């Protein structure tokens, strides 16, 4: 029997009647119920309507007010699924920095359901640089989207953005100021530009920290005429 990838305790999987009757492929659990319970869902009724940050009210948060003051910045809205709690930090550390690809499975299903509910046409994962990809062996953002696009209710996933310059791997080692000062790292893959036209776009990333990455992604896509564009992150 497999053990939980976070706490190493044995996993016991008992199918519910509903799962048995639905004929739906039950996703393999990679973390236990106790570990799942340590993650905190962000409720839309208690989140900044702009960036999705968890807070007590539904007012635009201070971070977003600062973004609004910056010239040429798109007011792209973001929805965050989970708070960036110590549990999420530990998860990200094991998943990204220790490179445990199996952990992608822990959130694939919930990401799929949330994205289906967002009712968009196209999902674009935030890309990683070639250096990061070679080092880690996978794009952590794209891996979380593995189940999206697998049924007829799902939007399609297009890797329409590419990294041109700075290495995202180093981003985690940078301070906030360095991250804000970066120059545009993304460019549209010309193979996808036409396919995005007139569609509702969702830009997906693993974590929203300063918002810099999402704003760059939105700016890079600005040249394409899309119907709408929103951001969506696993953690905020
Ligand atoms: Zn566990
Ligand atoms: Zn905000």
Automatic annotation (TrEMBL):
Pfam families: Pribosyltran (PF00156)
InterPro entries assigned: ComF/GntX_DNA_util-trans, PRTase-like, PRTase_dom
Gene3D superfamilies: 3.40.50.2020
Domain Phosphoribosyltransferase: 176-233
Family according to the record: Belongs to the ComF/GntX family.
Name of the protein in its database record: ComF family protein
Organism ancestry: Bacteria, Bacillati, Bacillota, Bacilli, Lactobacillales
């Amino acid at each position: 029997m497999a053990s939980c990838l976070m706490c190493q305790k044995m996993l016991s999987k008992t199918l519910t009647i509903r799962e048995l009757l639905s004929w739906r492929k039950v996703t393999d659990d990679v973390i236990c119920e106790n570990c799942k319970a340590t993650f905190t869902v962000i409720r839309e009724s208690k989140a900044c309507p702009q960036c999705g940050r968890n807070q007590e009210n539904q007012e635009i948060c201070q971070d977003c007010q600062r973004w609004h003051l910056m010239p040429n910045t798109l007011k792209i809205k973001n929805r965050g699924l989970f708070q960036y709690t110590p549990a999420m930090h530990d998860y990200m550390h094991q998943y990204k920095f220790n490179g445990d690809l199996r952990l992608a499975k822990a959130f694939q299903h919930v990401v799929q359901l949330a994205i289906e509910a967002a009712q968009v046409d196209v999902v674009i994962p935030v890309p990683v640089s070639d250096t990061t990809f070679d080092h880690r062996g996978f794009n952590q953002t794209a891996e979380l989207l593995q189940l999206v696009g697998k049924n007829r209710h799902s939007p399609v996933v297009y890797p329409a953005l590419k990294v041109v310059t700075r290495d995202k791997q180093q981003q985690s080692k940078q301070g906030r100021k360095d991250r804000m000062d970066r120059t545009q790292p993304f460019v549209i893959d010309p193979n996808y530009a036409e396919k995005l036209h007139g569609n509702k776009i969702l830009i997906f990333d693993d974590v929203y920290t300063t918002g810099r990455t999402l704003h760059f992604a939105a700016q890079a896509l600005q040249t394409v005429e899309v119907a709408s564009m929103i951001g969506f992150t696993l953690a905020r």
